[in-house]
Amino acid sequence: MIDTAPERRALADRLEKAGVLKTPGWRAAVEAVPREMFLHPGVFLPVSGGRWRPVTAVGTDPAEWVRIAYSDQSLTTQLDGHLTADQVSDLVTGVPTSSSTTPITVVDMIESLDVEDGHHVLEIGTGTGYSSALMCHRLGEDNVTTVEVDPDVAARADAALEAAGFSTWTVTGDGLLGHPHRAPYDRVVATCAVRRIPYTWIRQTKPGGIVLATIGSWPYGTGLAKVTVGEDGTAEGQIISRSSFMQARSQAVVPLAGDLSARTAFADSERTTLLPPTLLDEWMPAFLAQLTAPDAHLVRATTSEGLGLRYLFAPERESFAEFTPDGDGWTVRQGGPAALWDTIEKSLAAWRDAGSPDITEVRLQITDRSHTYWIEGRPSLRWEHRLA
């Protein structure tokens, strides 16, 4: 077995140089916890054509395995909700469903928790258990409760934590429900993305406590929300950065099946867009679009002739927007009771008129009845999502 202490120190140095590793307690955790122990039985590395190459711990040269473990990248550990690297030997296709997030993202997030000695933390999404181990080292294993929805992923994480010397509270269940049996918590952190922060997390957090979670469901259009819970049971804060995590399993977007043209056969309106839908390829516009139409899904497609198309679908409202290139502009056809692009385009225009503020200027308040987002001083940039 290779001693990876030098690699852990080098990782800590890189994270400190990047500005995300800021405090001695977390640096000690990064230097102490061996990431390679939390990647068993193996990982999938991306190759061309949307395929994955399985790499296992036992079947790889030890030096190469260590190099992979301490690379600055997210490492996929499960595909399609069941497949692990030790179950295949050839290249495979599949959708990542569990991973070891890049260390820079993990450490940046846990530093943002502003923990203090003795704090009790609830983690939503155990994954490989690496971030759980970092928190156990920093706070003590009895102060960390971690919830994982996938029983197999939870079992592997628990085994890795035990092997690393941490007997923490690893719970198999729906993290969206939190874990009320050990509440209240000083901090709640989600290592998965959610469409909105569940109010049950707020209920399980002490007044003055912090909830940290990635909001959104579109890839490359999500934000890390940090809210503080008040004495009145509400929570308020802001988006502190861009963030990218896998979606919570129960909220994952299901790919639309069948012929997309059948979904757009009957349009109620057609016009030239005022703003190009390619704006949604940018992070902040994509985030704003989700605040405006939280149930809408963005779909990209290519015709047999190679023409690039874009769609917005809100299946529960039976509404759509279809975008087609038209010379230097775009034509949008809309159908259903919700004019999706009309409302999103209005928000994007207001955002541009306001000087295109950054995602970190978005504030939010959570109550038991609604989630409200806004940008200070801009009445046209305010969105309320009512729960009842």
Automatic annotation (TrEMBL):
Subcellular location: Cytoplasm
Domain of life: Bacteria
Molecular function in Gene Ontology: protein-L-isoaspartate (D-aspartate) O-methyltransferase activity
Protein name as it appears in the record: Protein-L-isoaspartate O-methyltransferase
NCBIfam families: methyltr_grsp
Organism expressing this protein natively: Streptomyces echinoruber
Any coiled-coil regions, as ranges: none
GO cellular component entries: cytoplasm
Keyword annotations from UniProtKB, A to Z: Cytoplasm, Methyltransferase, S-adenosyl-L-methionine, Transferase
Family: Belongs to the methyltransferase superfamily. L-isoaspartyl/D-aspartyl protein methyltransferase family.
EC number: 2.1.1.77
GO biological process, one term: methylation
